[in-house]
Give the backbone structure.
Amino acid sequence: MKHGKDTRLTADAWDELHSPRPEENDFDRVVERAISRRGFMGGVLAFGSGAAAMSAGLLGSSAIASTATSRFPFTPIAAQTDDAIHVPEGYSSSILVRWGDPLFSDADGYDVTEGGPAAGSDRVFGENTDGMETFSFRGHEILAINHEYANRETNLPAAQEGVPANADDVLKFQNLQGVAVVEIEETDSGWSVVKDSPFNRRITHNTPMDIVGPAAGHELMKTEADPTGTRSLGTMNNCGSGKTPWGTYLTCEENFNGYFGSTEAIQDQKPNALSRGHDRYGIGAEGWGYDYHKWDERFDISKNPNEPNRVGWVVEIDPTDPESTPVKHTGLGRFKHENAEVVLAPDGRVVVYMGDDERGEYLYKFVSNGVYVPGGSTEGLLDDGTLFAAKFNDDGTGEWLALTPETTGMDLAELLIFAREASSKVGATTMDRPEWIATNTHAIEAYCCLTNNKNRGLKPNAGGDETPVNGPNPRETNNYGQIVRWRPHGEDHAGNGFDWDLYVMAGNPEVYNNVYGGSENVTPGNMFNSPDGMAFDQNGLVWIQTDGDDSNAEDFAGMGNNQMLVGDPATGEIARFLTGPNGCEVTGLAWSSDRRTMFVGIQHPGGHWPDGGDVLPRSSVIAVKRDDNGLIG
Ligand code: FEO
Ligand code: CA
Ligand code: CA
Ligand code: CA
C-alpha cells in the first residue's frame, strides 16, 4: 500500500519511519545468527537444486520438475515498464469500473479528476481497489470489493499536499474508502456496473456495524459513543477478502492504525492504561496524514483511546442484502489482517486462515467449534472456536499453537484484542509479512505469500520478539519474498500438525547466484518480487499478484512493473500472465460465475492510467477474457 504524499512509501515503511522499532545492537548475536543461517541454507537450497532429495523426504510429489509439460494455455509475456496493461496473445482486457465511477444516477456529476465534492462521494466507486469476490444470486452477478486506502493528493487535488482543510475533506476520504457492493453485467459491449441496481451499496468509514464474538462488550471495546462495546462505525483499510460457504463476503481490516492520531501530546508515546497495545499496532499521535483526529473526535486517541480496539477485525457483509448490518467478528482476532481464506474441515468445522501483514508478525488460523450445515444456522461459526498461531520448525514440520487463557495468561477477549501479544507469549514463528493465504482447490494444502522483510535477521518485531532467520523465512534482509505452503497432517485443516515447504523463493537470478537469486523455478523469464495477492482457480493453478519494487533497476532489474503470474503447484512452474501499468500494484482477483472472465484489481497506478492524457491516475478493476471466450480458470 502506498498513500498520500509519500507515494513511494509502503504502509510498512511508513510505520517504520514514524514508529521505529527497536534497533538490534547486540553484535555478537547478529554474527551468531548469520552463521546458523548459513547452516540452515543448505536445506533450503536443496529445495531448489536438489528437489528429488526433498521430495523423497518430506513432501511427496511437491518436487519441482521443470521438464514437465506445461498446463498453462498461453505464451508467457515479457516484463514491461510502460503505462499499460499487457496480457498474453489470445487474451484481452477492458475496464470494468474506475475510482469515481457513479454507482447511482444521483452521482452522475461526480468528477474525480476535478476533485469532486464530499457530497456524493459515498455514491461512487471508491479508490484503491483491493480484495474482491463475486457472488451469483438469483441470476444477478454481484461483486463485493474493498477500497483499501485513499491517496490524499489524488482525492484532494486542490488541497496543499493532500492535507485536509476541513471536516468535509475528511468526510471525502472516509467516503471513498471501505467496501463497494455492485451488480455487474456482461453485454455485447463488455462488462460494466449496473447503475442503480438494488444491490449497489457503499460501505464507508462511517457505516454502522455490529461487533460480535468473545470480545464484544468488553471494557476495552467501549467508548463514550458506544457504552455497550457492541456497535461501531465503519470498516477501515480493507485489504484482502474472503468468502464464506454460506455466501457472505469477508473484508479484512489491515493498516487501521494510520487513521488515528492525537490532538494532545502523548508523553513519549509510552504505553499507559488507556493505550495498552497501541505501540504494538503502531498507533500514535501523528497518524498517517489523513488527519481524521483533527476533524472527527472519534479518531482522536486522547479522547477515545479504545476506538482503535474496534478496528483490526474481519467483517462479514451480506452482498445480497443492501440493508444488512455488517458484522465484526472478534473471534478471528485483531491484527493487521490481510485476507481470510475459509475452508471446511472434513467434519464440517470452519477453518479460517489469516495473515498479519507486518514485519515479524504471525500467521493465524481459526477453527470453529460448530460445524457448517448447508442451509443451517451459521451463528457463531466465525466466533465460537479457537484462534491459533503458526509455529514452523526448521525440519519441515510445524504446529498450530492455541491462543487460550491457559496458554497466554490473558482472558479470552483480551487475547483476541491483543492477538499479537498472545502469539508472542506462546512462541509462534515470526514471519516475513504474511499477505494472502490461498487453499488449493485440488489438494488439502494452503499457501501464504510472505511478501518481504528487510529487517529479517536484523531487528525485532514491534513487540520486541527476535526475528532470526528461520525455516520458512530463510533469508536475512529479505527484499524479494517467498511463498510457503503447508499440508495439514491427516488431510484435515482443523488439525494441529502440518508439513511445510517453500513453493517459491523470489529472487533475481541475473544479479545473484546465491539464495537471493531465488529458487529453481525462478528464471530471468518469470522473475518478480514481493508476492502478495493470491488465489487458486478451479483447475488447481495458483495465481500470484505482486506489490513490489517496480523500479526495474539494480536488485530488481528485469522484473518490470508489478504483475500477475500463474503457478502449477505440482510442477513448480511459474509463468508471467499479466503486467500492470507502472507504479501500480496488482491486487484482487475474482472470476465471473461462468469462469470466462477474470477480474483483476489495479491499485494506485502511476502516470495517467487508464484515461491517459493529463488526468489523474485511477485505480480500476479490469476484466480479462480469452478472445475465443473460453474458460479462464
Ligand atoms: Fe494491504 Fe498487506 O496488503
Ligand atoms: Ca496495497
Ligand atoms: Ca496486499
Ligand atoms: Ca503488499
